[in-house]
Design a protein that fits this description.
The protein is α+β, with helices and mostly antiparallel strands. The protein has a single domain, classed as HIT family, subunit A. It contains three helices and five strands, in the order H-E-E-E-H-E-H-E. The protein has helices at residues 6-11, 59-75, 90-93, and strands at residues 19-22, 26-30, 38-44, 83-86, 102-106. Strands 1-2-3-5-4 form a five-stranded antiparallel sheet, covered by helices on one side. The model has no long low-confidence stretch (mean pLDDT 97). The chain binds adenosine monophosphate. Adenosine monophosphate is lined by residues 6, 17, 29, 31-33, 41, 88, 94-97.
């Protein structure tokens, strides 16, 4: 059984967060330590510790995370200027919270990361 993180408490509204979207599959809220003018985390309501723990039954929900990210980007007015979606997995990527999450970053030129 995977250990819960603070994100489970945010989903259950047991700790405060600036929630910008939620439905039966995902919750999205502003990052407490923003790395860009817009920095939102999109997380599954189901606890999945790392990308390595994703199974085929999660594929629909993962696609939904991307659809929701695009919807939020539009809401935040950065769909045309652009944004970046990032998911970190384990130590070398700097994953700190072991409940998978997609970072949505935008609102400034983010510079080149890869490519
Ligand atoms: P990662 O390094 O990919 O695991 O990112 C974890 C992110 O969660 C970091 O950007 C943190 O600032 C953010 N974070 C941690 N605790 C909270 C919280 N209580 N509310 C909002 N964001 C949080």
């Amino acid at each position: 059984m995977a250990e819960e993180t603070i994100f489970s408490k945010i989903i259950r509204r047991e700790v405060p967060a600036d929630i910008v979207f939620h439905d039966d599959k995902v919750t999205a809220f502003r990052d407490i330590s923003p790395q860009a003018p817009i920095h939102i985390l999109i997380i599954p309501n189901k606890l999945i510790p790392t990308i390595n723990d994703i199974t085929e039954e999660d594929e629909t929900m993962l696609g939904h995370m991307v659809t929701v990210a695009a919807k939020i980007a539009k809401q935040e007015g950065i769909d045309e200027t652009g944004y970046r979606l990032i998911m970190n997995c384990n130590k070398d990527a700097g994953q700190e919270v072991f409940h998978i999450h997609m970072h949505l970053l935008g609102g400034k030129n983010l510079g080149r990361l890869v490519g």
